[in-house]
Amino acid sequence: MKKYILLGFSLLIVLFSLTACKDKGTKINGHTVYKTEITSIKTDSDQDWKITGTTDAPDGTKILAFSNDKSDYYNWTLSYTDSDWVKVKDGKFKLAVDPTEVTNDDAWDEANKDIKVTIVAVSEYDKDADDEAPKALVKGIRKNFTPEKLTTTKKQVKYKEKLEEDSDEEDSDSDSSSSESRDNEDEDTDSSVNTSDKSQYQSVTYDQLARTPDDFKKKLITISGTVLQSIVGEDGTTELIVDTTGNGDVIEVLEMNKSSVRHLEGDSVTIYGVSGGLTSYESSGSGTVTAPLIGAYIIE
């Protein structure tokens, strides 16, 4: 009889231990965030990282991946299914991460480099897969969870080099046809829009440029802010880093034409220019920063 009692007691201890070890998640910004255990990292035919793993998150919970760039709040998971989202099924998941998107080009210019990506399961997450995630959520995830190291391979580097070669060839091919376009850019612009006419510029916010950059690319826009940094190039044109909200939401501004007016740190400015989508630059305080880019025709 004692043997049966001891056996039953032992089973209870084992069951209690298994229950106690189960990850109940961490509450962050109204979401329950679960850690993941990565079981395999390979590369697929597109030279993306193919990642499989496990988690204690409930089935249907969405898997998100965030870069180590503190200014980047986008999710970088890619699904191998028809769904936009990678979700937990039977405690498992499979996703892809594109090295060309999760980090800037310079960060993977050679093999065997470790790219840090934090992969977690997030409950009650209702944003679209390509939307910027809430900043408080991402900051909490980076604070509470350890990033995974994704190591670049020789094949990925070769793939990157081929992409760059193809891009250079496209640029070269387009140079002959677009040289006329460049030479006649002012003429073409004048026929459709006058860049000196401020009424032609659409007022935008930082969120619009950061969340949906393709919606404004190559369009005339205007936005205001405070100069954080001013750099004068060898050709006399100025590059500005401008805080548009007072909360560190910065844009990079490239002056299209040399100006006689210097814009210094602390100046309040209004930019009238053409949107160039997103760009990345190195900041001494924040590392690699991804920000909206504007080619400025007018800076006031």
Automatic annotation (TrEMBL):
<keyword id="KW-0732">Signal</keyword>
<feature type="signal peptide">
    <location>
        <begin position="1"/>
        <end position="19"/>
    </location>
</feature>
<feature type="compositionally biased region" description="Polar residues">
    <location>
        <begin position="193"/>
        <end position="206"/>
    </location>
</feature>
<feature type="region of interest" description="Disordered">
    <location>
        <begin position="156"/>
        <end position="206"/>
    </location>
</feature>
<feature type="compositionally biased region" description="Acidic residues">
    <location>
        <begin position="164"/>
        <end position="174"/>
    </location>
</feature>
<protein>
    <recommendedName>
        <fullName>Lipoprotein</fullName>
    </recommendedName>
</protein>
